[in-house]
Specification:
Shape of chain B: elongated
Largest sheet of chain A: 6 strands, antiparallel
Radius of gyration of chain B: 39 Å
Shape of chain A: globular
Strand order of the largest sheet of chain A: 1-2-8-11-10-9
Order of helices and strands of chain A: EEEHEEEHEEHEEEH
Oligomer: heterodimer
Number of strands of chain A: 11
Structural class of chain B: alpha+beta
Number of strands of chain B: 43
Largest interface: A-B, 55 and 64 residues
Structural class of chain A: alpha+beta
Largest sheet of chain B: 7 strands, mixed
Strand content of chain A: 25-35%
Chain lengths: 189, 896
């Protein structure tokens, strides 16, 4: 065996930029694990979720934060959710699988996505330029999540705070996605 | 409309020589010949002259601007807005609607194409709520600006109504600035509105009379805007020509500002409605001519007198801006009392029209209508409207008697000043049979281009109505389509220019490949390394031949991350796969990979790839790069719609894993240096078509598949994408002792053709499993998608196509994909066509050009020589039909 331990490389090299007080940054410590609920296993899953994380399955368009504030569950499809938590290990999915006691099918998704956090006073007007979703707080409050497309790229938008959004898009087109978001921010600055 | 600003450069056009001695003024004397249809009738011959001589000459004379012929230097942007209520226009009615809606808590967008809000209020002297209208408008702006739920957008034109409450709007952001500091020039907004109020006002129209195109002749409302809004006197001595009460207000406003009003000419035979100090008044009169070389000097009246004047204010009445109400094919209806078309009943859903746009041309009516609309919409959307009443104002006098054109006098009476259409042209159109409004428009160019009939349409069709003896209502109007005003192509394109035309996808080893000087190729949105040139190599074939030779001779590495990867889990995953693949998957053991062929419902081949069973209920499917998305969609359809009772769950992991093909006789030795020592990958422990979840280089999770696209002993190894760059570098470092080579898509293609594997060229949607030589894979022992229809007789003909290999008889000759195949001695015609070549390459192994292709009854024709006819490249080559497996047909290498 060679002495060549593999070094993980964030997709955008840990990009960070502050434009007029609004911060755009790649989130590099985020684990994303997809969770599929087995057919006819909904009740068992809900019980396992509640026991392991102390939370309920989020409704469509919503997310749920575990009471310890460590794990956020995003509704992504009728029988699917994403768990988001801080973890840089490539084995993050194993932890979720174990905690749910085999009541769900889990898949590591961390590397499928690039995550950008857009936070600051101009975040919403910047997103107006590319995001078709209505992000007004009265329509899209804290914890709301939506799957949409921006500049032809599929994306998730999660509202983390009144002026803070987490954006997920395919990691292979991360450069294009960053360009789209950064251009929007610069255009409204 | 171009907004004037300090630093704007403008140039006069449409004249030869200086404007003082314009040589083109000669056209005035030729005008009897330059009537509608003139070009169609005159420049017919010789035909070839049209494009090169006549058209450029005409265009040069036509008063069109000059294109720079440079790419548009400005950036543009797009955006999305959402509102409960979109109010179009900030005049009295729009303002009242926005105030009512905004006060009730609706999310309101108020858009106006002007840079200053207020509409006609800022150009008139009316009072609202006992204060001057302009001041009321400013206070209303301040109130709206202070409401957090209201967004006021100036310089924003709502140009179209689309489906489901979607409105298009163009916001001009930097057109009025000398320097845009790199910001987008314009933003094209898509506005999603639950309700909309059209308060677009009305446009005044001229009266046609001889020589009404002389500078100094302008619309009466424009004169008032100059005087009241901008404090500019458009002339020293003004004559007003009107058919309605509104025109008189121009005279009154001018008088109030001490501008000399020489005369008021009213076409109506009624009592003089207003007193204007110092002005001569002619009731029942007309202007029959104007004179002046570069501008107006005097006007001649129907009673024979001439009056010196440098400004003639004309009012022919107001046409409501109904355009947006027609965008879903609504037809305006005629109202005699105001001599104008108003919106018909068939409006786009959710749209209401108020104020002058609705034919309510007076102030109190407009305010009241706007306010009521805002309140009713608020109530309709579940909000409690505020109790306040509509802003108070008086209704001004507004009576009108239709009058379209002056009959007496000589000289051209212009209807459409932008498109040079005169009253005479309309008469000619009628005379020549083009009397329907849509024909009139196309024959005369009336109402075309940027004006879109805003000023000219009504008068022209009224004249046509006179000629045909029909009413205006019967004559009707042309339909208005989006856009209301021109939208630059640049704004429609937005950011989609150059490299930003569409997103691009990069493999995890992209940066490393760039460092190697790789040449990239676009495959879909992916950029893939095509080959890796070495110093001294002058031709791509040199690089590709070397990559193939080194791979087959020792070991090569190719980034195959672009292949679609679908994670499949569930109790019924095996059954699911057994249904979507044509061949059997029910008995695939854990730790094994199988090649699978997917058919469409109609029995044609859809995609192929491998699926690995990683666990009892866990599989990973690979698809071709091109079909990654469509196969995923197909599987979701099958899962959700066809077999919802199966417990199967899918998620794409294409981007999640960096995957590398490691191929060649030394591939195992190379991988043994990287795979952690507890994993045995010897041939016995990890034979052909084995798979496993391993770890590499001290614990990094990895997946290893023993599969081969090249025909060599080969593996594909996957690591989480974040390690892709490091993994590529590790493979190269570990492979140094074996002279490892990276190879690109070209070498990949050469090796798969040598091995006879089908790819996109063969799986093109028109081939069957039978055609591909995979007919026996379609299991008859189970039900699967495409199984039944693959048995259609036409797909199973004895003389059907078969994928075969082809080799030129003369090895120095080159075969190319696309060539069609004919029996020797037969002419190259449709009826003799026997097939075609799909993929071709130079095989370094065979030292010959080779090809794959479909030919009828191919399997029975091994050794036969046929002709590959390639008229596109002018080649006709004798080729021998051979097995498609040029290299290692027994598969000994990949099992070694």
């Amino acid at each position: 065996m060679l002495d060549l331990a593999l070094k993980a490389e964030p997709r955008l090299g840990g990009f960070q930029n502050n434009v007029g007080g609004t911060e755009l940054a790649e989130v590099t410590d985020l684990a994303i694990v997809s969770i599929a609920v087995p057919l006819d296993g909904e009740a068992a899953f809900d019980a396992a979720l509640s026991k392991a994380y102390g939370t309920e399955r989020p409704a469509p368009g919503q997310s749920a934060l575990s009471p310890d504030g460590q794990t956020r569950f995003l509704w992504t499809a009728p029988d699917q959710l994403f768990a988001l938590f801080e973890d840089t290990s490539p084995k993050a999915a194993d932890d979720v699988r174990e905690r749910l006691g085999g009541k769900a099918y889990v898949t590591l998704q961390s590397d499928n996505w690039v995550a950008l956090r857009l936070a600051g006073g101009m975040a919403r007007v910047a997103l107006e330029r590319i995001c078709p979703i209505d992000l007004h707080p009265s329509a899209f409050g804290e914890g709301h999540v939506a799957r949409t497309a921006m500049e032809h790229m599929g994306a998730f938008v999660l509202r983390e705070g009144i002026h803070s959004f987490l954006l997920l898009s395919a990691s292979s087109s991360a450069e294009s996605f960053l360009h789209a978001v950064e251009t929007s921010l610069k255009n409204v600055a | 409309m171009i907004e004037l600003f300090d630093g704007l450069c403008a140039r006069s056009q449409n004249h030869r020589g200086s404007l003082d001695v314009d040589l083109m003024a000669i056209n005035d004397y030729l005008s009897p010949f330059l009537s509608a249809g003139f070009y169609y009738k005159t420049f017919m011959w010789p035909k070839a002259f049209w494009e090169k001589v006549y058209e450029p000459l005409i265009r040069k004379s036509a008063g069109l601007g000059h294109a720079s012929m440079e790419p548009d230097p400005d950036p543009y942007d797009k955006g999305f807005l959402h509102a409960d209520l979109l109010v179009i226009g900030t005049g009295p009615s729009g303002r009242a609607a926005a105030l009512a809606g905004g006060r009730a808590g609706l999310r309101v967008i108020l858009a106006d194409e002007d840079f200053r809000a207020g509409g006609r209020l800022i150009a008139e002297t009316h009072d609202v709520d006992e204060r001057p209208g302009a001041s009321w408008a400013s206070a209303a702006v301040a109130e709206l600006d202070a409401l957090p739920n209201v967004r006021v957008m100036s310089r924003t034109t709502v140009y179209g109504v689309f489906d489901h409450g979607i409105y298009g709007a163009l916001e001009r952001r930097t057109d009025h600035l000398v320097d845009s500091v790199g910001k987008p020039r314009q933003v094209l907004w898509r506005i999603y509105a639950r309700r909309a109020v059209l308060a677009a006002g009305a446009i005044e129209r001229p009266i046609a009379f001889p020589n009404n195109d002389r500078p100094g002749v302008m619309l009466a409302g424009a004169v008032r805007a100059y005087v009241n809004r901008f404090a500019v006197a458009p002339g020293r001595r003004v004559v007003v020509f009107t058919n309605n009460d509104d025109g008189w207000r121009t005279a009154l406003d001018l008088g109030a500002r001490s501008v000399d009003v020489a005369a008021v000419i009213d076409t109506r035979n009624i009592d003089q409605p207003f007193e204007v100090e110092g002005a001569r008044v002619l009731m029942g009169g007309r202007v029959v001519d104007t004179s002046g070389r570069k501008g107006l000097d005097s006007v001649r009246l129907s009673d024979g007198r001439s009056i010196d004047a440098d400004c003639l204010a004309v009012s022919g009445g107001w046409s409501p801006n109904v355009h947006l109400t027609c965008h879903h094919r609504g037809r305006p209806v005629w109202r005699d009392d105001i001599a104008a078309f108003v919106p018909g009943g068939d409006l786009p859903q959710g749209l209401r029209v108020v104020g002058a746009a609705n034919g309510s041309l007076t102030l109190a009516a407009a305010l009241c209508e706007g306010s009521r609309a805002g309140k009713e919409i608020a109530a309709d959307l579940g909000r409690k409207a505020s109790a306040g009443s509509a802003p108070e104002a008086a209704d001004e006098a507004s009576s009108i008697t239709a009058f379209w054109h002056v009959r007496e006098g000589r000289g051209r009476a212009w209807l459409d000043l932008q498109n040079d259409v005169t009253v005479k042209d309309v008469k000619l159109a009628f005379q020549e049979g083009f009397s329907a409004v849509e024909h009139l428009k196309r024959y005369t160019t009336l109402g075309m281009a940027t004006d879109q009939g805003k000023t000219a349409n009504v008068a022209a069709l009224a004249i046509m109505a006179e000629l045909t003896g029909k009413s205006i209502a019967e004559t009707g109007t042309t339909i208005f389509r989006p856009p209301y005003t021109p939208v630059p192509i640049g704004a429609l394109a937005g950011r989609a220019r150059g490299k930003e035309f569409r997103p691009y996808r990069l493999t995890p080893s992209h940066r490393w490949a760039e460092e190697q000087g790789a040449v990239f190729v676009e495959t879909g949105m992916w950029l893939r390394a095509q080959w890796f040139p070495k110093p001294g190599e002058t031709h791509w074939r040199e690089s590709v031949d070397r990559e193939v030779a080194l791979t087959r001779g020792s070991v090569g590495v190719c980034d195959v991350t672009t292949l679609g990867k679908i994670d499949i889990q569930g109790r019924d995953a095996a059954e699911f796969l057994n249904k979507v693949y044509a061949n059997g998957f029910a008995k695939l053991a854990v730790g094994k990979v199988r090649y699978g062929l997917m058919l469409r419902e109609d029995g044609m081949a859809m995609d192929d790839g491998t699926t690995a069973r990683l666990g009892e209920h866990h599989y990973v499917m690979t698809t071709t790069t091109a079909n990654a998305g469509s196969v995923f969609r197909h599987l979701e359809f099958c899962r959700q719609c066809l077999w919802p009772d199966l417990d199967v769950h899918l998620i794409s992991t294409t981007d999640g894993w960096a995957q590398f093909a490691v191929a060649g006789p030394n591939s195992r030795k190379l991988l043994q240096k990287l795979v952690d020592p507890e994993h045995d990958i010897s041939n016995e422990a990890f034979p052909f078509m084995a798979c496993a979840e391993f770890s590499v280089l001290g614990g990094t999770p990895a997946r290893l598949f023993r599969i081969s696209f090249s025909g060599e002993l080969a593996y594909e190894i996957a690591v989480p994408a974040r390690y892709g760059d490091a993994m590529m570098r590790a493979l190269m470092a570990a492979g140094e002792e074996f002279e490892v080579t990276p190879y690109g898509t070209e070498a990949l293609g050469v090796m798969r053709i040598e091995k006879g594997h089908a790819a996109g060229n063969e799986l093109n949607g028109t081939s069957t499993a039978q055609d591909l030589g995979l007919g026996r894979m379609v299991s008859k022992a189970k039900d699967c998608i495409g199984n039944v229809l693959s048995e259609r007789p036409a797909l199973n003909r004895e003389d059907g196509f078969r994928l075969m290999g082809f080799k030129p008889v003369d090895p120095s000759q080159i075969v190319a994909a696309g060539a069609h195949l004919f029996a020797r001695g037969k002419t190259a015609s449709m009826e003799n066509d026997e097939g075609w070549l799909t993929s071709a390459a130079f095989s370094p192994e065979l030292k010959s050009s080779i090809a794959l292709g479909f030919i009828k009854r191919g399997q029975e024709r091994l050794g036969e020589v046929v002709v590959a006819n390639d008229p596109v490249r002018g080649r006709r080559i004798d080729v021998e039909i051979v097995s498609p497996h040029f290299v290692d047909p027994e598969g000994e290498r990949l099992r070694a």
